[in-house]
Amino acid sequence: MTDQGPIILLTRPQAQAEAFRRRLGSGAEVLISPVLEITPLLLGVNPASYAGLIFTSQNAVRAAASQAALAGMQAWAVGRHTAAAARAAGMRVTSANGTADDLVALITRARPAGRLLFLRGEHSRGQVAERLNSAGIETDSEVIYRQEERPLSARALTVLQGERPVIVPLFSPRSARLLSRQAAGARAPLHLLAMSPAVLAAWEGPLPASARTVELPEAEAMAREILRHVAHPP
User: Fold this and answer.
1) Residues 62-77: what's their mean pLDDT?
2) Most buried among 64, 90, 172, 234, by the most CB within 10 A?
């Protein structure tokens, strides 16, 4: 086995991966190789005709804000970072500070007047609009961006075939499945850190050396856990 420390493989879309790398500071070696690329889509509806907008990702906020004036509108956000993006677009924000389940529960309790619009990616989880409609809260759903698969870089594939431990943060079920396929046959010791049990369950790749979920489904918790692994390898 090599005596080198672990390397962190970030496979989020480029902009998100670079922002997350800054959270990790300079004490850890990071390799960015996205397996997804965000492609915005044209809005097919007028957000201003709705009483409020629902977001479960910063990507949806950015795609909507690039096409429509959102200032002053009510936003319902899944977590702090999505909420921050909505505030940056000038929206009035109520955040669930949690998961899609927490967001649905929050909106259901609040029972806002008027029809809502859920702006989301092509691959979305949580059935937010469906569950809100079932609860009697009229909600439309609009796909505003695609998450298109991208191949791992040559360097990432080389790292996965080496002896050096690789810390693999997993942020969504789809990225976990895509990386699983591309990492098939990897020989490096893989240490999976998943944002939730559902994300970890989506892993179909090589048997990892270790696998666990973070304490909270937030970027800060993921960063803390990664740095703990770097300082004290399993």
Assistant:
1) 96
2) 64
